[in-house]
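Co-fold these.
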Amino acid sequence: MSAPIAPAARAPQTPLARVASDFVANPVAVFGAALFLFILLLAVFAPLISPQNPYDLAQLDVMDSRLEPGSKAPGGGTFWLGTDDQGRDMLSAIFYGLRISLGVGAASTLFALCIGLTLGLTAAYFGGRVETLIMRIVDIQLSFPAILIALILIAVLGQGIGKVIAALVTIQWAYYARTVRSAAMVEKRREYIEAARCLALSPARIVFRHLLPNCLPPLIVVATVQVAAAIALEATLSFLGLGLPITEPSLGLLIANGYQYLLSGKYWISFFPGIALLCTIVSINLVADQLRDVLNPRLSR
Amino acid sequence: MLVFIIRRSLQSVLVLFVMSLLVFVGVYAVGNPIDILINPQADQIDRERAIAALGLDRSLPEQYGGFLLGALRGDLGRSFVHSTPALALILERMPATLELAFTAMLIAVLLGIPLGLWAGLRPNGIAGRTIMAGSILGFSLPTFWVGLMLIMVFSVMLGWLPSNGRGPTTLLFGLLPVSFLSLEGWSHLVMPATNLALFKLALLIRLTRAGAREALLQDYVKFARAKGLSNARVIGVHVLRNILIPIVTVIGLEFGSVIAFAIVTESVFAWPGMGKLLIDSINVLDRPVIVAYLLVIVFLFIVINLVVDVLYSALDPRVRLSESRG
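Predicted complex below.
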């Protein structure tokens, strides 16, 4: 616009760089991102950093059960967060639980994203009956709360890690389909799509190489929020005893295990996994909140 | 208006029918209730008698047909476990859930709208920022864990409130058993209701704040101020009235989700409502109760959506129900 004072200093800013610089402008969001990265590292390196392998029965001793946080372990270490009813170190159990919770959240988001994306783009690009059918299913599904649909599906499918992921995917695809479709409806009227059509590119190429990249910003925001929602929902199902089996203890199951000891004042078995769950969800939501502002062109000053 | 209501009712019946088919077939696919309900030591004759008594020996279409005929007469089958009509079982538990949901919604509205207004009027003040941070926390806190922590603090550590159950109930109008008429009932009610309200509270704060911020920039607010109206009148009458429209819609629509989320809260606090009944029924594969619960919930949702739509047009004359003719 105006004549730049130092033309050499103004390197052309890529969209990614702009988003990144806008993102770090908010210290709270940076804190959220850092916290999430930290939790992710804990989950990935759980076997290396955990004081014990919580599922190796040889390392557990029932004599150590329900010890308070900070108790000395007979092996010389310290149970910083106490132990559960089987003498398991809570800190290690939380690290391993994070792996499962994050894994289930990520897997279900990924599958749901692929399905929702494809169906949403199909609906927007082709329109007509296909669109009516897909969007009607989305509308009906979104008019019921996620927890209710999850319970119905679990009641129908049964329990297990694959089935929980299937239930989460079934719930979430509708959010992506709706988001992608509304973004694509706007984008497909733009000139560049017309130009691509005039070049006689194949529909698949137009949809995936031209339409899709321009629908990504709102999709990223929804996906971030939905990862947090998926983790919370999985924890809720596991807490109700309808989610993951005892052999795959996610954070929700750890919290459920401590429920019966809570009334006798042994708070730590439920308390610390809950804090871990809370930090995970809060960190993701903080990132999502900032992404929403950064990626929304209407709000950019 | 009448055309709209009739059209929507017909649509609702169709949705109910489709849902009943989906749920019935879906639930039919789960395991075999016989293995759970019949003593494994029972001999063949006893087994067959029990299967015939439960109607499980017939084919799926036959079972569904029988179910549908019964449903039209208000009979949703008998519970395998309690041997009482499933619908009666659910209706018996319904007042407890509705009381919990209404109280939770009331807490959310009475706190959420003033807090949201406050944050919207002074978005950069300390109070406004604190309220918004609190609402992010409210969105992120897993409901069931908050419930456990409430029990830990108020029941175990402080010993102020009972940790589970509904306590003694009083009959309202000689019909409905409710807790809120006695002090002891309140002591049972307040913790689960607060727990259930948290998520909706966070939602209402955000919605009210966003609405207030938007409304304050409008010309009619500037004009009202220019006329010299008091701040209280501008906010209380002009701003609030305009932002109430989306809020009422959300309150109505969210009421259904409060009833659904009550499943979790009821499980934590052992509140004897329909949600806890559903979880217990899923655990023992009590099919008729699961199906009946889901149909009752779908019915509730349809009624709520209809009422919200009608209320919406009554509150905002700009909205006409004309699209129903299209």
